[in-house]
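Margin note from the TA: students keep mixing up input and output lines. Inputs are the sequences; the output is the structure of the whole complex. Example:
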Amino acid sequence: MELQFTLGTGGRVNSNKMKKDKDTIDKTLKRKHKLQAKEVKVFYDDFMAIKGIDMNIRANKITAFIGPSGCGKSTFLRLFNRMNDYVDGFRLEGEILIDGENIYKKKVNVEQLRKQVGMVFQKPNPFPKSIYENVAYGLKIQGIKDKNFLRQKVEDSLKQVGLWNEVKEDINKSALALSGGQQQRLCIARTLAVEPSIILMDEPTSALDPISTAKIEELIYELKEKYTIVIVTHNMQQAGRISDYTAFFYMGELIEYDKSKKLFTNPEKKQTENYITGRFG
Amino acid sequence: MNNIKKNRIKDKAFKVWGIACTFLGLILLCIFIGSILIDGLQRIDWGFITNLPSRKAERAGIYTALMGSVWILIFTTIIALPLGIAAAIYLEEYAKESKLSSLLEVNISNLAGVPSIIYGLLGLEVFVRVMEMGASILAGSFTLALLILPIVIVSTREAIKAVPKSIRDASFALGASKWQTVSQQLLPASFGGILTGVILALSRAVGETAPLIVIGALAYVPFAPSSPMDEFSVLPIQIFNWISRPQHGFEINAAAAIIVLLLITFIMNGIAVYFRNRWQSKFK
C-alpha cells in the first residue's frame, strides 16, 4: 500500500516519462485505499458501540458490511460522512481518513465533506417535493442557480439511475407518487447529482420488492466504475452478488474482512462461517 | 353465566352514560347558539356591520369594534408569528439537551396556563406605562402576542417534530447546513401544521376580553382606528358593554355581535382544520 502511494505521487518517476505514465499513475491512485479507519472506537455516552477497528477500504470497489443487528455496522458506516455527529452522547476515538485526510479534524467543513461522501438510506426518503426539486436540491444549496445547468444535471442524474424514461413527463410532480423502488433510485440520483466520489448505502434495498432490488443492485454494480461504494446489507446473497470485498462485524468488532469470494466460500473465522451459513443472526 | 350478564349490563350502562356525557356539552352549546340566533339574527344586516356606535340601540353598529379586532389580529400575528416560530425552531432543532433548555420548556408550558388577566397586568405595566404606548392597538397586540406565544411555540414544535427524521438525514447527507435544512425542508414540510396552530392561537386571541380591558381598551370609541397607536375597542368588549346596558335593544345588539364573533372564530377554526387535513396527507 505505502509503495503504491509513493509511486502514485510521481516523486521518483523520471520527468520525461511523466506524460506517458500519467495513466498508470491515475490507475495507481485509484487503486489506493480511499477510506481508512485507524483504531476507531465509538461511544454513546458510556456504551462502546465500536470497539477498536482498523480497516482500509479500496477505491472504486464495492465493499459490503454484514453482521447481525446491533453489531455496529451502520454506526461504522455513518462515521465516514459524520452522520453520527447529531446523535446525543456520540464520541469518537481514533481516526477516520478519506484520501489520507482525517475528516474529524477541527477545521474540516462537514457540509463540504458530505458533498464528497453521499449517502443512501434504508427507507427511500424523498423530500415531499417534486422529482425535479429532489434531484436539484443538493446543487441548489451549493448556491447554483443556473436553470439550464440544473435541468441538464437533473436529467443526467436521472438517466444514470435509469429513471429518466419513466419520469420525464412527470418531472414536476411529487416524488411521493413514485413507487418504492423508483423512490430509492431517485434518492440515488439525488446523491449522484452533487458528484460525490464515495457513496455510502445503509441497507438500500431492505424496504423494496425483489424486482426493484434487482434493479438497484444492477445500478450499484454499474456505479462502481466511478464511485467507491460501501454498502451495509442484511442480505448475504446480495453481499455475495455485488460486492468485491466483504467485512463481517460482530458486537462492535471487525471479525473478518476479505475478498467477498473468499469470505463467503472459505471464511477464516468460525464466527463468520456460523453467520453466513445462517446459524445465528 | 351470571357474571357474563353482569358485565354486559355494565358495558351497556357505561355506553349510555358516555353518550349522555358527550351530548350534554353539545346540547348546551346548541341551546346557547339557538337562543343567540333567535335574539340576534333579526338584527344582523349590512348597517349593523358598518354603523358607528350610537346611544340608540337600533342605530348602533359594530364597525369600530370589528375594525379594532381586525387591527389587533393583524398586529398580534405580525408580533407573535416570527417570535414563536423562531423560538420553536431553536428549541426543537438547535438547543442541546441541558438544564437550561428543559427549564425553558417547563416555563413555556407554564406560561400557557397563566390566566389571561395576568397578561393584561403585565401589558399594562410594560407596554402601556413603561414603554409609553398608551392604551393603543400596539400595546394590545403585544399583550395578546405574549398571551398566545406559548401556544404558537408548542404547536410549531409539534409540527416540526412531525417531519420524519429521514428528511433531516437526507438533507444533511447532501451537504445542507442546519439552517438550509430548517428553512428549505422542515419549514415547508411543517407549514400546514404551523399554520393550524397559529390560526387556533389567533382565534383564541380574537375572543380575549380581560387583558384588553386591563390595559385600558375603551368600551366606546367614536371612530375606527387608523394607526397602530390609536385607541381601540374590540368585539368582545363591545359585547360586554352592550350586555351591561339596561335597554332591551342593546341586548339584541349583543346577541347579534356574538353571532359575528362566533362566525369569525368558526371560520378561523375551519381554515385550521382544512390545513391540518391537507398537511396530514403529505407524508402518507
